[in-house]
Design a protein that fits this description.
Blueprint: E1 8-13, H1 19-36, E2 52-58, E3 61-69, E4 78-84, H2 94-110, E5 115-120, H3 124-128, E6 133-141, E7 144-151
Parallel strand pairs: 4-5
Antiparallel strand pairs: 1-2, 2-3, 3-4, 5-7, 6-7
Amino acid sequence: MKDADQLVWKCFAFQEMSNTLLYNILLERTKVFVVEQNCIFNDMDSIDMKSHHMVGFYDNAIAAYARLMPPELTFKEMSIGRVLTPQLFRTKGFGKYLMEQAIDKCYEIFGEGDIKIGAQLYLKRFYEHFGFKPLGEIHNIDGIPHTLMLLKNK
């Protein structure tokens, strides 16, 4: 059995999360986006409360996570952000399964429409694999080059 077959996917509205789950999500986001990437920014924002949270559990540990945002919250289009795989699970290819789940869940929750993301530039090819196309110019967010990308609904 492949490790990915053991992932248990769940999606939560903010109000559905336990304090422990929310704490563990924020802990993983801090490890990846603040500590590993050496980026000081305000990760906890009001967007979390208006979003859904896709979590892939492996042996009850968070092995993959993404925040799913409805249209008109961060962009006109629905969006996926805070995409991460904790360091312990990075060699297992869980990021691919996370994006497949996140895209499908966006369509299920928010309906038909395009998905727009703000991607770290070094992950551009990863997102292109799912059909995202770059938009506009490269820009800097908190010291990290980013590009906007769009997945047109088929």
